[in-house]
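As a warm-up, study this chain.
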Amino acid sequence: MKKLSLILISFIILSACETKKTTGSLKNLISQKKTVQSKIDSLNKKLIRLDNAIAKLDKSEKLLKVTVAKIKPAVFKHYLAIQGTVGTDKNSIIRPELSGIVKAILVKETQKVKKGEALIRLDDALITDNINELKTQLDLAETTYKRQARLWHQKIGSEIQFLQAKTNKESLERKLKTLKTQLSKTIITAPFSGSVDAIIPKVGEFVSPQTPVIRLVNLDKVYIEADVSENYIGSIKKGTEAELIFENLNKSIKTKVNQVADFIDPNNRSFKIKIFIRNTNNELKPNLIANIKLNDFTAENAITLPSSIVQEDQDGNNFVYTIKKANNKNKVVKTLIKKGLTYNNKTLIKSGLNINSVVVNLGARGIKDGQFVTIAHK
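Now compare it with the structure written out below.
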């Protein structure tokens, strides 16, 4: 033991001296590192052999305590985190179909309206006057047409007079129908049931088909739209499990993806997804940010470990420490593993461990391969 201590002290002094002259090319420095690491590993192995020999002879030797976890099959789920926004198909800016002066506003902002309900009435005096005038003309044209028709059936009068009377009557009927259609369009109505979000013009103002007059919104059904990187085109599909988190509302909803676009945007190499949800109490507003978690990978009967106990050695290999029985004692064994995805501080283990393997949990950072330990029960 004294001899080993002298070796360690000498090695430390040697390392300290070498620290002052750690210069040279990258290749030389890497070579020096491997030499030092080899010496450390060799000394660690000697130290472990001595510790084990002492543990067999010295009954008073106190072993390091660790906790362990027995591997059990579990479901491992990985989620992709993205952001989306709330949208609705029923969020419309309403414009008049005719130009005119606003004569009356029939609703108030925030008022609930039904489909077809009148919202704004434009001045219809000119159209009404034209209709009245046209009706007078049509009455005369109908009388003339009836007389010409009777004469024509009696073989009296010319065919031209009859056809002219008929054409004049039908032309006036079409004009009257057009004017009545225009008159109906002086009443701006709701295209769907919803809430009046904004009224833009005031009574007396002139509006045209280019002028927005009402914003009408229906928030009973909304959707969340988001862009997903094309890297996930194979794992995000219709029916993929999703969770919507609205931080500003302290609200989360578990649901599924309803729609996946077939087009990849060449500008950002992404495709769109939509998730439709019912908007209880109209809490969700258009353009509200939603954090979305999409389940892009699931493994059944998987082996998982806390990410904190998965370590990496100087060769880049991932490993954990497992416990094996040796002479009725608990021996630490360095076990190489191949890890997969990590999510929520859990790491999927692809290979290297079996169901019922006993893995060192607490204390894993302070032990070495081949060391004997005592298992502390929680």
